[in-house]
Specification:
This protein is of the alpha+beta class and about 90 residues long. It has two helices and five strands; from the N terminus they run ββββαβα.
Amino acid sequence: MHIEQVNHEKNGYFRALENDTEAGLMTYTWAGDTKLIIDHTEVNPAFGGQGVGKKLVMQAVAFARESNIKILPLCPFAKSVFDKTPEIADVLF
């Protein structure tokens, strides 16, 4: 599975692809230069139960660490990943 990021000036997304099929999508909005807000996570039903959503969140965490930014998870799924994974609290806003 490959995860790509498309980043625009005001927003962007992480998309999980498996053999050119979209397995999941997580969208975000920029809040200034140092914070992104995860606003939606969606997993293709054909890929349910495979951890696709968590992989998307973890890719956002890696991006946040590399870019020295913080994440505000407004999406209920992303928030649940942060709540259950204390080792990623360093990027939590």
